[in-house]
Amino acid sequence: MSRYGAYGNWGKKEPTKEKADQMSQPWRRGSASTAVESQEDRQRRDNIANQTRSNPIKETEAPSTPVPEQPKPEASPKVDEQGFEKVRKKSTKGITGEKASAALSHVPHPPANIDTFVSTQAPIRRGSGLAPSDKKTKEHGVFWSEQVPGIIVRHYHYCRVKDPNMRLDDPGVYRGGDGALWHRKWRYYLIIRRWGETVAEIPIYTYGDRGLAMKPKNIHCEFLSIKPFRVLSTDFVNQSPDNPVLSVEKQFGRLKLDRLTMVARFTEIQTRSLDCDELVVVGKLDEKSTQVMVECAYGKSAEIAWKPST
User: Fold this and answer.
1) What is the torsional sign of CA 40, 42, 43, 48?
2) Which of 130, 154, 193, 224 has the most beta carbons within 10 angstroms of its beta carbon?
3) Which residues pair with 184 in a beta bridge?
4) Percent of the chain whose predicted confidence (pLDDT) is above 90
5) How far apart are CA 226 and CA 4, in angstroms?
């Protein structure tokens, strides 16, 4: 048993303040020289830290080659040559521009004599003046491109029945969607103009092979007499002496243009689609007759329409 008895530290002297500080701070238990050395070490570390802050260690960098300055692209105008505002399209995936041209330079181009199908031809817009050369009519395979001014064609003509003696059982008579009786018959036409998918044409009449003999004299100026193919001028009579005569230059197929009573009414301009199933090309006027026909249809017909009645 300790001399202090069973109560342990009873009667033991209390340590001094310096001793207590050393006991609470173990690193101060060393000698004074150790404390001085620790202070010098701290001073040395502080000096090294100050030198490091003032002169930081620079990392070695690899020498870089100077990058030439790229010229700035010129600002594109906001409007095009026609004064319309430009719209920027979204960029598409893949390569474009010069890179695409270089990548596709090895691709062979089609020969120059092959007609390429341009975007303006599909679909065709009315008034564009274009018609695909490979399209044909359904029954007789007439190319759309063949339907030009001066061509004589045959197709159906539809009109309401005006003769009270005609019945539903008669040939070419049918009941239309409006409930009235309609008559369908073959008729010859002269094409005077074509644009887009539409043609303008004027009808050819014979009036029961009597021509203008039974028509009023005041409407004779609205007609042009047609001289058949291989008929001499001396054997032909102009039924409308105030107007020139149209001459047939060529005749196609089995249909004949041999009636001396044929007249074309240039004041009755009609329009239709190029896509006419039953269309047949019959003949063709010469160049001079075609020019006269177009001038009468778009020039003289207007004068006749505005001419005061007497």
Assistant:
1) positive
2) 224
3) 158
4) 40
5) 157
